[in-house]
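Kindly review this protein for my students:
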Amino acid sequence: MKFNFKNGNLILLLSIVCTYVLSLFLMPKITLHFLNITEAGQRYYVLLFWQVIAIVIMTIIIQKNGLNSLENTNQRYGFLKSVGKGMSFFFIMMLLQMILSIILQILAHIFSFNPVSQNTQEISLAIKSQPIIILYVVVFAPILEELVFRKAIFAYLYDIINTSREKLRFILAAFLSGLIFAIPHDGISPIAIVYIVMAMIFAYLYKKTSNIIAPITAHILMNLAVVIVQINLA
């Protein structure tokens, strides 16, 4: 197995990742400081504004920089078929997440660690105080994260891995991008396995359909399910 960096779309990768980081951290902070915004609710509206801008910019970048090898195929699913595929995989992912949660509960009892996602708890608290966060969690976060972690990072890794063993190529790219996906959510912890597995399924959906709409659909439904559960628990 070798790495052929010439096959990867580095411009697309860096452009999308930089846009994501700027829209999530730097630009909202600059806007809040410039407009002297301190009220919590208004701060979230600023964040949502920059998320919309980021999605628009990423879409333009993608159109100008071409497709990766995953989408440069005649087997690409159409929009509605991709949505349907994402919806069908949502139920599979929910079942798998339940199984992983049970396994984590058992391991937590044996090794004494907290099996609850800190990221989910923080989101739940934020939703209670500012319901507008639901819009970010259910709509904007899934779109942005799929564009960044699947369309940019996973696709780049998939393109640069040079091996005749297609399954190995996919697993390596999906796992590495899944690990990168897990770190911002709950860091390096036992909970990360859930994010890695979910990310690998999102990656499979992307590869299977050659359309980022499929994992975006599944991701939106997953986040919506989490929000509904958290609201009911509250």
